[in-house]
Amino acid sequence: MKAIVFDNAGTILERKNVIKDMSTKKVFFNTDTIGITNKNDKNIIVVFQTPVDELYDYADMSIKEYMLKFNSSFEIAYSQIKVSNEELLDVLQDDAKIRDILETYEVLLTRDVRVISGAALIVDSQSGIITYVYTAGGLLFKYTSDVINYLKDEGFEIYIASGDNKHSLNQIASILKIAKNNIYSTCNVNCKESVVEKLQKEGYYVYMVGNHTNDILAIKKADTGILTLQQKELLPKRLVSQADYVISSIDMVIDVVKKES
Fold first, then answer.
1. What residues contact residue 160 under an 8 Å CB cut-off, 6+ apart?
2. Are both 105 and 162 inside the same structural domain?
3. In this structure, are 37 and 92 located in the same domain?
4. Which of 138, 165, 180 is the last residue before a domain boundary?
């Protein structure tokens, strides 16, 4: 039995992010939010489960107030240290507003995107300062559908384990015709490793395809770990060294599978 687990953004989806630097108030484009987060080991990424267009009713509310009011609306999707939702809310500052997120969303809508992955924050979990807010979206890479269809024909069970929210991943699952039960949303680095381990215990030979440090444990744990560089981000050597294969385009997954058959 064979299974393959894909990360989403930067792996099967060409990610396009619009970010607001809360210290300068400048809005800019940058796909490497994990790279930004990794600059401080206390930084975390917080993902909103609420679709961005539903945030307009709360535009004048502080982000902290919104998160306190709707405690199930967010999850910590990436961190290098252990932080709970409760610990985050205890220290979180309230100077950033929901309208700051909406500003990035409106700029993103002017870009060529098919999927809106959702809104997120980069927070210094020690000081509680929201350093960046952003909205992410993107387009499927050119060969994503071809790869998925090939793997289905070869009898693979296909999974997606991603830090993105459930609404965007369900949309992608519908486009690619992947079973919703095979989707793991707001899945952090440990979650992704657990997904791989669970499948291995069920008797699957597991491939993991990822693109950044939030995939490192899953790539290491997998029977075959694949790192894709298609998003063209600068990656640390410790990540590259864990991969069995480093590829430059998602269609090269087919080459890896054929080589190992």
1. 5, 6, 7, 8, 12, 169, 172, 173, 178, 182, 183, 184
2. no
3. yes
4. 138
d(CA 215, CA 192): 7
- Asked if 77 contacts 186 with a C-beta cutoff of 8 angstroms, the reply is yes
pTM for this predicted structure: 0.91
Contacts of 208 (CB under 8 A, 6+ apart): 4, 5, 192, 196, 215, 218, 219, 221, 222, 224, 225, 226
> Where are the alpha helices (H) located in 23-157, listed in sequence order?
33-37, 63-69, 85-91, 98-108, 144-153
Q: Across residues 145-163, what is the average pLDDT?
A: 97
- The tens digit of pLDDT for each residue in 26-37 reads 999 998 999 999
Query: Residues 180-191: pLDDT tens digits?
Result: 999 999 999 999
Write out the residue range of the structural domain in which residue 200 sits: 2-13+140-260
Interior CA angle at 99 toward 108 and 231, to 5°?
Answer: 30
Nearest by Cα to 56 from 117, 106, 112: 106
DSSP state of 244: S
What is d(CA 35, CA 38) in angstroms, rounded to the nearest whole number? Answer: 5
Rg (CA), the chain: 18
Return all residues near 222 (Cβ < 8 A) that are at least 6 apart.
5, 196, 206, 207, 208
Task: Tell me how far apart the terminal alpha carbons of the chain are, to the nearest angstrom.
Answer: 12
Say yes or no: 147 and 241 in one domain.
Answer: yes
> Per residue in 62-87, pLDDT tens?
999 999 999 889 999 999 899 999 99
Q: What is the spatial distance between Cα 109 and Cα 116, in angstroms, rounded to a whole number?
A: 9
What pLDDT score was predicted for residue 128? 96
DSSP letters of 218-239? HHHHSSEEEEE-TT-----HHH
